[in-house]
Design a protein that fits this description.
globular, 3 helices, HPr-like_sf, Histidine-containing Protein, Chain: A, HPr family phosphocarrier protein, HPr-like, 4 strands
Length: 80
Amino acid sequence: MGGLETKAIIEINQAANQFQSSIVIQVGMRFIDVKSILGLSVTLFNNQTYKLDIQGPDEEEAIEVLKGIFDKHGLKITLK
């Protein structure tokens, strides 16, 4: 089970923090705030699929940006 590179985690976290919207990923029964770098660093692995839930005033833009970053790093996501 290989963890993600630090660079990927930082890129996801920095992108999420640009938005006002709430951005949460679900992994199994756990919900992680994508704006928490610590939460991301112990959660993201290449071999999982994540449910991405984005809600707020700039959610459409946040979805576009984060989908692109997750794809760039080979992470599978579904949108809630």
